[in-house]
Amino acid sequence: MTGRSITVADVPALLAGAEFFSASAAGEGIEFAGFWLEDILARTGPVELVTAGELDPGTPCAAVGAMGSTVAMAELPPSGEEPVALARSLAGRFGAPLGAIMPLNAASVNALHPVAAAAVLGLPLIDCDGMGRVFPLIHQTTYELAGLSLSPLAVVSAGNDSLLLDTGSARAERIARSIAQAAGGWLLCGMYPTQVGRLHEAAIHGSVSRTLEVGRLLREHTSDGRTARESAGGGGSAPPRYGRPGDGGWPASGTAPHERLLRDLAAATGATVLGGGRVVELGPSVRQAGTVYPGNPMSMVVHDHDSGRLIRLEAHNELVLALADGALTAAVPDLLCLLDRGTLRMTGPERLTVGDQVDVLCVPAAPVWHTVHGLGLGGPGAFGFPLRHPRQEGR
Amino acid sequence: MAGARIGVRLGAGQARAALVGAGDIRHAACGSGDDRTLSRMLRGLAEGTPVRSVTWDVSAELDPATAGSPVASLRVMPRPPVGSGHPSPLLLALAGHRAAVVGGHDLFGVELATLDIYEVLRTAAAARAEGMSALALTATGALGCPDHELAAAELVREAFPQLRVSLSHQVGGLGLLEREAATVINAALLSRAEQVVERCVVISGRLGGSTSAWFVAGDGGRISAERLRLLPVLGLSATGAAALTGAARLAGVDDAVVGLAGPDGLAVGHVRDGLPDVATDRPGPGGVRMAVPQASLTPIRGSHTATASAFALLAEHDQHTAVIAVADTGPDGDPRDGDATDRARAAAARLPSASVLVEPSAELAAIGAAGTEPSAWLDTVLYAETSEVLARKQAAAEQRALTLVAESGARLGSERVVSSRAMSLSFLRSGSYRLVVRAGGRAEDDA
Amino acid sequence: MKRAGRPAEQLTVDELVRYGPLGHAQMLVGENLARPVSRVALISDLDQVRHCGPGTAVVLSGGLAQGAWAVESALRLAWERSAACLVSPAVVGLDQATAQLARRMRLPVFVVNGDTAACALDLAAAIASPEAARARLAARCAELFAERSNARGIVGVINSEVPGVTAALVAPDGHVLAGQASADRAEHRVQVDVPGPDGRRWAELVAATAGPSSPTWAETVLLILRLARGPLAASVARERVDAVHDAERGRAALRALFASAGRDPAPTAQEEPGTRDRERTVPGEALGWRVGGRHVAVFLRSSTPLDTAATGPGVISAWQEVIDDLPLVPWDAGWASWWTGEEIEVEQVASALRRHLARMRSPIPLSAGVGRVAEGAEGLRESLSQAMLAAGVTVRDGHGTVRSFDELGFRVLLASLSQTELVGSARMVLADLLSAPDGPVLVTTLAALLDCANSTSQAAARLGVHRNTVLGRVERIRARGIDPDRPDQRLALHLACYALLPELS
Fold first, then answer.
1. Is B114 on the interface with A (CB under 8 A)?
2. Interface test with chain A among C47, C48, C69, C88, by most A beta carbons within 10 Å
3. What is the C-alpha separation between B313 and A255, in angstroms, rounded?
4. What residues pair up with C60 in beta bridges, in sequence order?
5. How far apart are CA A355 and CA A302, in angstroms?
6. Residue B182 · residue B171 · CB < 8 Å
7. A vs B: CB pairs below 8 A
8. N or C: which terminus of chain B carries fewer CB neighbours within 10 A?
9. Which has the closest alpha carbon to A113: A23, A201, A32, A221?
10. Which chain A residues touch B107 with a CB distance below 8 Å?
């Protein structure tokens, strides 16, 4: 991995991979972040991607990630200066400048923020993360599991309101959420300030590379459209009269394209396909009173084309559970994602309607998430579902 | 009221027209350069039949890359961006002058910063000095509260009456970068749209005093001349939308999965309740995403056999009727292109018997244009603690959409909600919804 | 009322729905309701379902109403534990997908608005004392019996109200008078005698249970049957009187109709002169008949020598069960009816009648003839005469046969010759043949052979036997001095056979 860097050319793959690991619900409408990051990288030059082992163990580092709504962020994009405020806050607290950035999670829009932060601050980005997916709460991390402290938590809003919260993990989270709501719907956070040496135990390694790899895979499968877009965008040739360029075209051949993509994704991520077919039901689920999670619970049912089973998916910001014919078959912390067969893109309950065709994938979480502590922090129980994770069955 | 409707597609120096509603569909074609030729063609097409409306697909005339003129772009947000704001070469070319001023609201309409009116005026002055004729104004949160856009527009109009202003909340939906792109493209097309609309209205008027002129929008609905003058961006990518509508009409179905056959491939779209399915996240001109609803068309390229089997697979998984239509005209104004016809037939041969093969006797997009009907689209965010409040607010938004439809010349009482979706927003406080409403209606001049 | 030595009583899910606490719940899925319920479990944690035994009614507490996923999880676990049913509180998002899953698992699901704990308590009480619940069922049935006026209605109450039970009213000869015929053939059943108007045993009320029933459940069913007996006896008496009265009115009206149109087609031998004047006063229109227009008459008769007065009510009620909009009037030695309509055709009537005869649960075998299309009352009379002639031929072919006058042609004449003197002569002419051990069979075979222009294969087909059998019989016929091939004897032989056939069949 030595000598790797992330350039403007890597952004589309990073974006596609970020969508994949977003557990469906949180990946909506993050394309804007691609333009935004391309703009920044074009200005700053590439970001150096390093492994934790390549840096001096004493290097001060912190995790960077956003909390809040991606829709709000799309409407109120970051100015690009936010990381500077974060770095200033954290350095002031520690008396030493940050030497490296690590992602809070290399998924959804948070796969892009640490890259932008590293670019703006001129720091290396460590190829790891603390979730391996998207979790709704910023303290649902392997950093937390390893005993790193979330706080002091530095937050900054799109209006450049800046704040340093020095309190316990759960309280910091709660307070930051209400600030996010008032400050435009999202905040950029700098957290888990630590030294690179401690990441050996505390981080999921290789996360950024994995996101890039999956993203490249996804783009290869939709390459027809992208190629057309790029040529149409650059060449100035007359646009085709029917169908616009860049629609994620459909390479035509014998087997269904979604099957080939599923096969490749399974090979790259160790994912299993729980089933696929028509969405037969979609609607709000029961609100869980007093939950710490923002957002609205939703429920959807996919009728598995091959087995006839009904796969019910419960979502609360992201996909939390999959029940096949009433039996729990997959659950957080494992990553559930939905592939839209029509567009060959990752999708989520908010973008689907009854009748759409999807495939349901489950990507196993990093082993640390399957420990007792891991499941306590990121398992079904943490999402208010009184169920044992399938891996706990028979224990 | 008896009479026929005409649809015309302008593009590549050609005008192709179809007359619908007087028995068989008639077609005609001529060069599009000369007004007299066009008028003569339309009169010949009518053959004395009273024509109630002419609906124009002018999307080819509004290509931003060739028809756009540089404009100033002003973004309103609490903290100006460090970079250019958008890396697209097309936008960089169109937005000749870019600036950002402090101001804006959040999604729910709460003011994030006071609008810096002095900076607004300075930007307008600079734009005017650089010879720009239009200004695109995009404020964050304008869909929740358009006050800053309206206030800035008021200031600019007063100080620089010659500078035309496009406001983002009138142009598109959620997503600042996309909406800004749409607003810039819109502003850039204002003067070209002015000429095109004027010309179409005059030519339509020569068919008789009772003939009205309309324009196809990218979402498959139709809009008035006034609206297209103000919002030319709505007229982009209208050809595919019109073709989808036309294919479903000729097939006699309201809901369908439609394959439009051209010489190079198939473009697949869906029609629901007579209107094409739309999306706002598809790349538009120059690959730029605009937060404007456009008919979703997915291209399938390859040999006839390959596109046929791919479409058969799609149709098999779709609950609605599969329609395959020849959607390309021959070089000499023939209603159908030979290669496209072969492709369509190859695809139809692979479909179940309930499917429909449409071989139109006139240009498909022109037929679709003739039959377009008013539609409206809303994209907004709302907050509702309970499902009752949500239902009430959703109903209010639906009413707003229906009113828009009525304003676009729908026959009273024919307005209907085509789709209305409240989607919960992730990672905002519980009860935050994004609401997308689509509505349609029957045209006043419809038979 | 627990009795020593008896197995524990268990109510079924269906019983709990019909007269138990589940009657007030919304039934989301009603599959497999015959399962007995052994106990009730109020579940507040999904894991508790794992400890439920088979036959448990699983009730989810309000705290578990966390969404369709929770109900589906419970459903799955309940299914794995062979639960009897699942009761859920009303939950947002509980809809078709959940119902579809439950249907596939064949597990009944009920949705209760309000407190499921209260429902669980009621269920527990009902399951603890099934007798009390069943007494309520018997009381309910008794109430409903009193409201029904005929036997069909009364038996219907049992079939609709008593879960898992099918009932039928069966005549001593095995003919099902009302209810579901399958009840009489079931393995597990209870029965009571039903007295006729004369106080003697007239029919049997049979109730079949889905499986071997528990002693007290059998007792409950028996109690319900006994409760039905009184109302049944009363209704039978009423129906008999009604049927006889209706038949007489119909006969009189038809006669009046023909009289007004011309000659009465039926021999009036059975007529009692004293009743005539009174009968004439009943116009057909008063009975709702359609007299004008195009008619096709049909005539039903039986091969068995019969007393139309005795079998009439059974035949007429069986007819009315199948066709309630056409009259069936006792006429001569059978029953007359007719189809009316502008487009009516003979073939159409014949095939309709064939269908109806096949479905009719007649106490005696019936066959029928169909007349020609004719106009008005006069035409109807002629059509009926033709139908009667055709019916004479069909008698030989057994129950359900329908032939039209046109189809039979001149053969109808042969069939009408069954007169006393002819029979006497025929006996003498065919004495040799009749004296054979299988005499009647040989006569029938001879008739068939002559009908079929001496084609043995056609005759075999008609008789439903192998051609070799027919050849064998023809040899025996020839051996008795009869040569079916002699042209000068053919007609006489044919006549003699036809004269004897009604007696032989």
1. no
2. C69
3. 9
4. C43
5. 9
6. yes
7. 240
8. N
9. A32
10. 69, 71-72, 75-76, 184-185
- Which two three-digit tokens encode residue C52? 């439920």
Q: Which residues of C touch A280 (CB under 8 A)?
A: 96-97
Contacts of A326 in chain C (CB under 8 A): 72-77, 79, 101, 105
Residue listed under structure tokens 């496209």: B340
Cβ neighbors of A346 (< 8 A, separation 6 or more) are: A19, A20, A22, A24, A27, A218, A337, A338, A339, A340
- How large is the ipTM? 0.85
Chains that touch B (3 or more CB pairs under 8 A): A
Strand partners, B321: B256
| HSE-CB of A288 using CA atoms within 13 angstroms | 21
Q: Please report the residues numbered 332 through 371 in chain A whose beta carbons come closer than 8 angstroms to any beta carbon of chain B.
A: 341-343, 350-351, 353, 355, 357
Rounded to a whole number of angstroms, the distance from the CA of B380 to the nearest CA of chain A is 11
Interface test with A, best of B427, B434, B436, B438 (most A CBs within 10 A): B427
- Residue A387, chain C, CB below 8 Å: the answer is yes
Q: Does A92 touch chain B (CB under 8 A)?
A: no
Question: How would you write the pLDDT of chain C (505 residues) with one tens digit per residue?
Answer: 444 434 456 888 888 887 778 877 888 888 888 888 988 999 888 888 888 889 999 999 888 777 888 888 899 999 999 999 999 988 777 778 888 889 888 999 999 888 888 888 888 888 887 777 777 788 888 888 888 878 888 888 888 888 778 888 887 777 777 888 787 777 888 888 887 766 777 788 898 877 666 677 778 888 888 888 888 888 777 766 666 677 777 888 888 877 776 655 544 444 444 444 444 445 565 566 777 788 888 998 876 665 666 677 777 777 877 777 787 888 887 888 888 888 888 888 888 888 888 888 777 778 888 988 888 888 888 888 888 888 877 776 777 788 888 777 666 666 666 566 677 777 777 888 888 888 888 888 888 888 888 888 888 888 888 888 888 888 888 888 888 887 777 777 887 887 777 777 6
- From the list B178, B302, B307, the residue facing A32 with the nearest CB is B178
Cβ-based neighbours of C250, under 8 Å, separated by 6 or more:
C287, C327, C328, C329, C330
What's the rounded Cα separation, in Å, for the pair A243 and A241? Answer: 7
Measured in whole angstroms, how far is the alpha carbon of residue B447 from the centre of its chain? 24
Query: C398 at the A interface (CB within 8 A)?
Result: no
pTM of the predicted model as reported, rounded to 2 decimal places: 0.68
Residues of chain C contacting residue A390, judged by C-beta atoms under 8 Å apart: none
Q: Are strands A357-363 and A272-284 parallel, antiparallel or unpaired?
A: antiparallel
The three-class DSSP label of residue C225 is helix
Amino acid at C414: L
Name residue B369's amino acid. A
CA–CA gap between residue C17 and residue C119 (Å, rounded): 12
Contacts of A among chains (3+ CB pairs under 8 A)? B, C
- Chain A residue with Cα closest to C45: A386
C125: helix, strand or coil: helix
Chain B closest-CA separation from residue A271 CA (Å) = 24
Write out C295-321 in H/E/C secondary structure. EEEEEEECCCCCCHHHHHHHHHHHHHH
Q: Between helices C456-463 and C439-451, what is the axis angle to 10°?
A: 120
DSSP 8-class letter at B317? T
Q: Do B113 and A28 touch (CB under 8 A)?
A: no
Contact between chains at C97 and A280 (C-beta distance less than 8 A): yes
Q: Dihedral angle at the C-alpha atoms of B141, B146, B150, B151, nearest 10 degrees? A: -70
| DSSP helix/strand/coil, A333 | coil
